[in-house]
């Protein structure tokens, strides 16, 4: 009778370990999928940027520094494999593109250009998608971290190396500032 109880207890503990381990794997994969979604949307925006530059070049020929800065940031962001670095570069790129839209206010012909307006609209939609994807990512990270830090999951997480994940947050130095427009 005692061996049956010991065997049943061992079997229950083994099942609990398996269920918790598989839960961690599932949650970790959701976090990775969520980040991949952000990465895909960022690439969409990176692909629109050359079109935006071409649309405004003729109107803002004296803004070559701004354009080359945007192109350099885009190329750096595309070439990096480090997710944190890509997000930092994306934030800088976002600020630089914002400055182009702020400069466009001084060019009535550009503001009326249908190609420019279409690109501006597309970028606005992509920004909305990026924000949604970041919220989804942070939600999956929250669920994962709760599982990692809660008992008895914290024991399994420690044994099998499931570290806590970081949320995507704007750091103080990365927060948006109003673009400074100088002529």
What are its keywords?
183 residues, mainly alpha
Structural description of this entry:
The protein has 183 residues and is mainly α. The chain contains six helices and no strands. The chain has helices at 2-57, 64-79, 83-104, 108-112, 114-149, 153-160. The radius of gyration is 24 Å and the shape is rod-shaped.
Strand and helix layout:
Layout: H1 2-57, H2 64-79, H3 83-104, H4 108-112, H5 114-149, H6 153-160
Helix pairs in contact: 1-2, 1-3, 1-5, 1-6, 2-3
Number of helical regions: 6
Bin the strand percentage.
Answer: under 5%
User: Could you estimate the helical fraction of the residues in percent?
Assistant: over 70%
Rg estimate, integer Å: 24 Å
Structural category is mainly alpha
Unreliable stretches: 173-183
Shape: rod-shaped
Entry summary:
The chain is 78% helix and 0% strand.
């Amino acid at each position: 009778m005692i061996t049956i109880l010991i065997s049943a207890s061992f079997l229950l503990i083994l099942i609990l370990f398996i269920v918790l381990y598989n839960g961690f794997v599932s949650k970790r994969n959701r976090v990775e999928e969520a980040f991949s979604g952000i990465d895909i949307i960022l690439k969409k925006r990176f692909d629109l940027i050359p079109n935006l530059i071409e649309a405004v070049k003729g109107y803002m020929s004296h803004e070559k520094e701004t354009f080359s800065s945007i192109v350099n940031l885009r190329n750096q962001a595309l070439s990096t494999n480090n997710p944190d670095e890509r997000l930092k570069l994306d934030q800088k790129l976002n600020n630089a593109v914002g400055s182009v839209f702020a400069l466009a206010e001084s060019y009535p012909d550009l503001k009326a250009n249908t190609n420019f307006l279409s690109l501006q609209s597309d970028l606005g939609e992509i920004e909305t998608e990026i924000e949604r994807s970041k919220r989804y990512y942070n939600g999956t990270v929250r669920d994962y971290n709760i599982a990692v830090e809660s008992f008895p999951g914290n024991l399994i997480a420690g044994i099998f190396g499931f570290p806590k994940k970081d949320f995507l947050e704007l750091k103080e130095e990365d927060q948006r500032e109003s673009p400074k427009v100088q002529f």
